Amino acid sequence: MSKSKERIEAIKMRRLGKSIIDISKVLSVSKGSVSIWCRDIRLTNAQREALVQNAISAGNVGRMKGAEVNRRKRLENIRTQERIARSMVGKLTKRDIFMLGIALYWGEGSKTTTSTTSITNSDPETILFARNWFEAIGVQRKMLRPYIFISEHHKKREEAILCFWSELLEIPRSQFPKTTLLRGRPKKIYENHDSYYGVLALRVRKSSSLKYKILGLIKACKEKAGVAQSVVAPHS
After folding, report:
1. Residue 116 in contact with residue 210, Cβ under 8 Å?
2. Who is most buried in 15, 72, 113, 119, counting CB within 10 A?
3. Shared-domain flag, residues 119 and 135
4. What is the pLDDT of residues 26-68, one digit of tens each?
C-alpha cells in the first residue's frame, strides 16, 4: 500500500515537471523505481527545457541530454513499429475478423461444455470487438447479457460504470443483470480510479449449440496449427 501511494505521488510530481532525482530524494525511493513509475508520462516542452536548465546548473547536462536523446529514440521506435504493424496487417477481410474472433474466444472465452457462451475482459475495445463478432456469427444483440464485475470499493461509481458499458456496447440497461461487487481489500491504489470500469463478461443467452460450434472451431484451429492433443481414455 505504501509503495502504491508513493507511486501516485511520484506521478503527480513528474507531471509538475520534477526530475526523477528530485522525486527520488523527496519520496526516499530509488531512482529506478521512480523511472519505471513515470516512464509513460510525457512532459511539455517547457517542462523538459526547465529540467535541462536545472541540470546545467547542477552540472548534469550531459546526462540529461543523453536521457532526452534516448527518450526521442524510444518514441520514434514506437511510431516506426506502429507504421510497420499497420502495413503488415493491411485490410482485414471478413474471414480475417472471423478468425480473430475465434482466437479471442480461445484465449478469453468460457470453454467448458456446461458454461454459458461468454467472453470476459476488462478492456473496452476487446469487449466491443467481442460484441461485433458475436453479431457477425448470427447472435442477435437482444440475446446478449453483459455482466459487470467491480470492486466493492467502486460501489459509489456503479451507476457511472453501468452507463459507460451500456453506451459503449449500445445495449439497453435492462439487459444488464445486477452488478457483481467483489469483496476484498484492494492490493493497490490506482491513480486512474475514475476511469476504472471493472471486468465485463459478455454472455449469450440460450446458446448451447453456439458454444459447441465455437469449441469445434477452436478445436479445428488447434488441429490445423498442429497443436491439438489427443485425449487418452484412462484405464478401467
Report:
1. no
2. 119
3. yes
4. 999 999 999 999 988 888 888 888 887 777 666 665 666 777 8
